[in-house]
């Protein structure tokens, strides 16, 4: 390049800098900082933009106890050896729970292989979960269609339950289903020419792109095209025909589908009519594909109703939820059939009769007064031989909340999950009804030791959200809601087609299954060093507590009495209420 080029370059550069300087200092009136520090002040906004996505790479992990635990999840998902050398890179902070080991440990092959839990033993169709672990509630809508399909396939491969989330059982939950027929499914076939185009596209590119091309050829500009699942073997599309007669639907849950827990929120999505009221007929149809029902009263920091920002309410999501596309979908705070505990339990009884399957509820608690009224009403109904009460109670920790949750509620509403489970287990036991109710724990459970500790404190079953998110490719960029102007960079928690269509569904389905497999494998390993042959042998006496001053406590009742401040006045009031 000659000298003239560089002279021109620097002249243009200087002119731009001067114009930019003048604009920041004398024209713009949006940013006060730029008036005093033109141009250079913009570095602040650049660094702020970079702070969140790069946070996890340059700082200690503060939210999940340690980064080692996060690394464990990612390695487990990829089925890699999960050993540490020399010492943890970030030791667990105190206070912390410790696990008691046995003097005479067991070999892994001496521990029971079965990790089963039975819900609703007294119902006509109880649910025997083949695992103590489920993927927690994540709505199709908050999660991309591709992400939901990866979770569904992973749950089917891994043999563990999956919670639908409040978005309901959408078409994406049928991605493993092959034994359907047109009596209860809407089936759309295509011409041999279109099928040939699909083969050609797959030959030159990849299966995902070929499927998109094929869908476009079949449905043209139909806004509901995404509500159909592509049967890769038959090269045809299908979706549930919820208008078909109830008698046309399968009598039993098809064997080629995962075990689905249908969640009903205050919005009643997936079980409501077009006016927004509960639809018993639609509910019965949905339950032909689900094992049990969970009523979402509260979740994590979302003590308000669930929130789905308008840009995520695509025509497909609008179809699933019977709402208007591209408008915010904010569920009511209070469950419409839960204006009192008695009304809520009566509604639970109605669902139990309609489905003949277990029904439970999901709550968050802050103290004794949150759980004691439930226990009192369950006890009253059992004594009066009224079986309209929850078969299980899911307790969610008060921290965080996947997707969209009000920041002012995070860490301010609800107890941490370990405190919650201990307290609920204690209250139900004191009322003599603990054996009637299964306890499900949810909240920042990531690794095998978390599972052993929470089950020792009283849980019968765990639901995991964040761990499964990470196994499915989440890099914790914290752009899930999309309200920041940024989208999930991996295509897992976004409806942005350009991002989500590049998501590797089958690859991440295997990662999801691997994560679950390695959780159980290493829970078994922990049971072995504890000298226990079965998960059922876990109890609070298997734990030790180390406080922030390194003092060791081996009596969990005394630990929680101090932690929860259950003093004499509160205990007297509690026993008086009983």
Structural notes for this entry:
- The chain is α/β, with parallel strands linked by helices and 578 residues long.
- Among the domains are: 1-59, no CATH class; 117-169 and 260-308 and 331-472 and 507-537, Alpha-Beta Barrel (TIM Barrel), CATH 3.20.20.70.
- It is built from 18 helices and 18 strands.
- The chain has helices at 3-27, 32-36, 42-58, 67-77, 145-158, 192-204, 207-219, 280-286, 315-321, 341-355, 368-383, 417-430, 448-456, 466-471, 497-500, 505-529, 556-563, 568-577; strands at 96-99, 117-119, 127-129, 133-135, 162-163, 185-188, 229-231, 236-240, 260-264, 292-296, 307-308, 329-330, 359-363, 392-396, 438-442, 461-464, 543-546, 552-553.
- The radius of gyration is 26 Å and the shape is globular.
- The protein starts with a helix and ends with a helix.
- Mean pLDDT is 89; it is low at 567-571 and 573-578.
- One of its GO terms (molecular function) is glutamate synthase activity.
- The chain crosses the membrane at residues 6-23.
- InterPro entries: Aldolase_TIM, GltB, Glu_synthdom.
**Structural class category:** alpha/beta
Identify the strand order in the major beta sheet.
Answer: 4-16-15-14-13-10-9-5
Indicate the radius of gyration in whole angstroms: 26 Å
Reported for the largest beta sheet, the result is: 8 strands, parallel
The overall strand count is 18
Shape: globular
SS summary, helix count: 18
What portion of residues is helical? Answer: 25-40%
Q: Give the N-to-C terminal Cα separation.
A: 90 Å
Q: Roughly what fraction of the amino acids lie in strands?
A: 5-15%
- What number is the mean pLDDT? 89
For the record, what is the CATH homologous superfamily label of the domain at 117-169 and 260-308 and 331-472 and 507-537?
Answer: Aldolase class I
What is the CATH architecture annotation of the domain at 117-169 and 260-308 and 331-472 and 507-537? Answer: Alpha-Beta Barrel
CATH topology of the domain at 117-169 and 260-308 and 331-472 and 507-537: TIM Barrel
Low-confidence stretches: 567-571, 573-578
What's the CATH class of the domain at 117-169 and 260-308 and 331-472 and 507-537, please?
Alpha Beta
């Amino acid at each position: 390049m000659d000298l003239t080029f560089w002279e021109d370059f620097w002249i243009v550069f200087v002119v731009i800098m001067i114009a930019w300087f003048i604009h920041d200092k004398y024209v713009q009136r949006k940013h006060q900082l730029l008036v005093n520090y033109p141009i250079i002040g913009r570095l602040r906004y650049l660094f702020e933009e970079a702070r969140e996505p790069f946070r996890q790479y340059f700082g200690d992990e503060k939210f999940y106890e340690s980064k080692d635990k996060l690394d464990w999840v990612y390695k487990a998902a990829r089925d890699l050896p999960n050993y540490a050398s020399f010492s943890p890179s970030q030791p667990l902070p105190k206070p912390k729970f410790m696990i008691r080991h046995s003097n005479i440990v067991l070999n892994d092959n001496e521990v029971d292989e079965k990790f089963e839990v039975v819900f609703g033993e007294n119902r006509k169709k109880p649910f025997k979960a083949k695992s103590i672990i489920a993927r927690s509630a994540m709505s199709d809508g908050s999660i991309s269609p591709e992400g939901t399909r990866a979770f569904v396939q992973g749950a089917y491969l891994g043999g563990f339950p999956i919670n639908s989330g409040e978005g309901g059982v959408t078409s994406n939950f049928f991605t493993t289903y092959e034994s359907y027929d047109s009596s209860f499914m809407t089936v759309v076939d295509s011409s041999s020419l279109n099928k040939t185009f699909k083969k050609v596209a797959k030959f030159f590119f990849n299966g995902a792109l070929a499927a998109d091309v094929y869908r476009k050829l079949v449905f043209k500009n139909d806004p509901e095209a995404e509500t159909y699942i592509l049967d890769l073997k038959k090269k045809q599309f299908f979706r549930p025909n919820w208008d078909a007669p109830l008698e046309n639907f399968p009598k039993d849950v098809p064997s080629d589908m995962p075990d689905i827990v249908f969640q009903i929120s205050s919005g009643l999505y997936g079980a409501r009519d077009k006016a927004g009221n509960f639809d018993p007929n639609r509910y019965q149809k949905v339950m032909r594909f689900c094992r049990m029902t969970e009523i979402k009263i509260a979740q994590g920091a979302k003590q308000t109703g669930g929130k789905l920002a308008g840009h995520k309410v695509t025509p497909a999501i609008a179809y699933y939820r019977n709402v208007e596309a591209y408008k915010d979908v904010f569920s009511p705070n209070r469950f419409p059939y839960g204006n009192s505990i008695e009304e809520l339990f009566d509604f639970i009884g109605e669902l139990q009769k309609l489905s003949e399957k277990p029904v439970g509820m999901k709550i968050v608690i802050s103290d004794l007064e949150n759980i004691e009224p439930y226990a009192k009403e369950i006890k009253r109904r059992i004594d009066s031989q009224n079986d309209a009460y929850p078969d299980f109670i899911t307790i969610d920790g008060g921290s965080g909340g996947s997707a969209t949750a009000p920041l002012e509620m995070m860490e301010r509403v609800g107890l941490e999950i370990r405190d919650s489970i201990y307290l609920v287990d204690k209250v139900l036991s004191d009322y003599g009804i603990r054996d009637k109710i299964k306890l499900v724990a949810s909240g920042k459970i990531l690794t095998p030791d978390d599972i052993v500790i929470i089950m020792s404190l009283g849980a019968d079953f765990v639901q995991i959200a964040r761990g499964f998110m990470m196994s499915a490719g989440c890099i914790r960029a914290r752009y899930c809601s999309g309200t920041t102007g940024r989208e999930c960079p991996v295509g897992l928690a976004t409806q942005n087609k350009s991002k989500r269509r590049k998501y590797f569904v089958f690859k991440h389905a295997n990662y999801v299954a691997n994560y679950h497999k390695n959780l159980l494998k290493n829970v078994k390993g922990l049971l072995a060093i504890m000298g226990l042959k079965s998960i059922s042998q876990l109890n609070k006496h298997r734990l030790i507590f180390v406080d922030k001053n390194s003092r060791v406590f081996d009596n969990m009742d005394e630990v929680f009495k101090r932690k929860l401040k259950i003093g004499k006045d509160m205990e007297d009031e509690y026993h008086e209420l009983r």
